[in-house]
Amino acid sequence: MKISVVEREPIAQVKLLQFQPGGIVRLISYWLDESGHVIQSMPVRADAPAQCPDALPVLAGVNAVELNPGRAVTAPKVSAALRLVAAFDKSPMAGLVDLKSVDVSGTEVLQLMTGQGTRVTFALDRLEEQLRYWRLVHDHGQKIGKLIRTLDLSVTNNAPVLWLEAGAAPPASKSRSPSPNRKKHV
Questions:
Q1: SS3 of residue 137 by DSSP
Q2: What is the C-alpha separation between 14 and 28, in angstroms, rounded?
Q3: Considering only CA atoms, which of 122, 109, 100, 39 is closest in space to residue 73?
Q4: Residue 138's CB: how many other CB atoms inside 10 A?
Q5: Rounded to whole angstroms, what are the CA distances from 51 to 64, 149, 164?
Q6: Which CATH number fits domain 10-168: 3.40.50.2000, 3.40.50.11690, 3.40.190.150, 3.30.70.2570?
Q7: pTM score, two decimals?
């Protein structure tokens, strides 16, 4: 008999409030891997030190019914959001901005929010193309001394953009990189 263990690596998280007996409300984090599998859920303690999985982008608007540990979330918008998170880490925008959250509750679009306050709207397909276009718009903003406030990449031609003055947003922090002592989830 041969047994193999495949370790799942979380790339995003979902945070939900969970009601406990006795009227206690807890914040529960569910971590998702690239294929959408729910890795585990654990209560988030307010006094706990920052853990690597908590630095992962948050998927907002996920239906709580779909979060079953050990099973994959099958919602097409969640799958698209996970593809976006994975593609972002390999994109020309990685390291320039911090990916904080992706909202999947909208109709046929994903709303990405960065740590710098930028909101970017993505169509569910053409993700790599939209990430490349985001970089072109970002670089143009650098040339004219402006930062992107909002950008709608779901529009295929002439994507609408709202600009900010360059000093108005916080700088990007170091990009997420796997920690050498990060715990693996099986």
A1: helix
A2: 8
A3: 39
A4: 18
A5: 23, 29, 32
A6: 3.40.50.11690
A7: 0.81
Beta bridge partner(s), residue 161: 151
Angle of helix 76-89 versus helix 127-144 axis, rounded to 10: 50
How do the domains of the chain map onto residue ranges? 10-168
pLDDT in tens, 49-84: 444 566 899 999 999 999 999 999 999 999 999 999
Q: For residue 93, with 0-12 CB atoms within 10 Å meaning exposed, 13-18 middle and 19 or more buried, which class applies?
A: buried
52 is written with which tokens? 């690597």
For residue 136 the two structure tokens come to: 């072109």
Q: 12 near 32, Cβ under 8 Å?
A: yes
H or E stretch covering 142: helix 127-144
Please report where in the chains the tokens 């040339």 appear, as a residue.
143
Nearest to 185 by CA among 47, 37, 66: 37
Cross-strand pairs, 128: none
Residues in the chain with pLDDT values less than 50: 48-51, 175-186
